[in-house]
Amino acid sequence: MSTINENTGVYEKAQILSEALPYIQRYHGKTIVIKYGGGAMQSDELCRQVITDVILLSLVGIRTVLVHGGGPAINEHLAKIGKEPRFVNGLRYTDAETMEVAQMVMCGRVSKQLAQLIGEQGGKALSLSGMDGRMFVAKKISSSEDLGFVGDLTLVNPEPVNLALKGGYIPVISTVACGEEPGTMYNINADIGAAALAIAINAEKLILLTDVRGILRDPKDESTLIPEVALADVAALKESGIISGGFIPKVDCCADVVRGGVPRAHILDGRVPHAILMELLSDSGVGTMIY
After folding, report:
1. Nearest Cα to 280, choosing from 11, 19, 15, 38?
2. Across the chain, how many H-helices and E-strands are there?
3. Cβ–Cβ under 8 Å, residues 118 and 170
């Protein structure tokens, strides 16, 4: 005979499933783009939880695209060959050697490992780079300082991703782009790549997994989280200094994606277990939503 405590636990699980049902119905058949990077990629346990969340969304009929970063893995490989990483205004300076490392690590290691993890846990994944099917095409970024092979996207071809989704696969995307010039390739910021792809495939949501809770009124106090930000209020939050520093590009990506027709963009703390499910399939939600 089951105990009261056991019955309580079962009841709580049933309540969670019941709460999730209307959200599953709302997003069934819709497409979610998740940019996976930051602190969540540094922990094997958190990585498994992110992968579990992605598989669950896919199994309940929510079309899920995973766009990943790989900065720490690139730095690790550069250290092995005795090369110091260099950054200019928050962007990685990418000379020819660093570009080769980025391609090898992002397309050949990180993307394949994530696809393998999805497969091992019962999902279906397809590893793709921005060069496959010329999904991403870019030109050299315009900047006051030379950034090497860092690109600005000039074309996004959604066909490879749409074909993968149609086949029931979870596309795992690394943001290395073909160059407009023959024989060239460019490193693309993963946030920017995810945002551009979300617009191109008419996604319902863009989720940026980061290593902060969201937009905070006081960066030192996580209780000051701003849960929702209207697009019209972004400029004022910048002027007041609430959105500042390295957080500006992430918020700009979210603002751009909403202007591009994606209804909602979210900045979530990837260090929180199952943050994706809490945001999408519960009444509470986490992080900051820009709409």
Report:
1. 19
2. 10, 14
3. yes
Q: Average pLDDT, whole number, for the chain?
A: 90
Q: Beta partners for 90?
A: none
Which residues 6+ apart lie within 8 Å of 194 measured at CB?
33, 34, 35, 67, 173, 175, 206, 208, 253
Burial class (CB in 10 A: 0-12, 13-18, 19+), 15: exposed
C-beta of residue 241 within 8 angstroms of C-beta of residue 251: no
For residue 203, the SS3 value is coil
Distance CA 18, CA 137 (A): 44
- Quote the CA–CA distance of 58 and 65 in Å, as a whole number: 9
3-class secondary structure, 209: strand
Per DSSP, the residues of 28-51 read: TT-EEEEEE-GGGGG-HHHHHHHH
* 95 has a pLDDT exceeding 60: yes
Residue 8 has pLDDT above 70, yes or no: no
Contact (Cβ atoms closer than 8 angstroms) between residue 175 and residue 130: yes
Instruction: Let me know if 32 is exposed, middle or buried by CB neighbors in 10 A (0-12, 13-18, 19+).
Output: buried
Query: What is the pTM (predicted TM-score) of this model?
Result: 0.91
Structure tokens at 191: 């946030």
Walk across the sheet containing 288-290 and list its strands.
125-129, 170-174, 63-68, 31-36, 205-210, 264-269, 288-290, 228-229
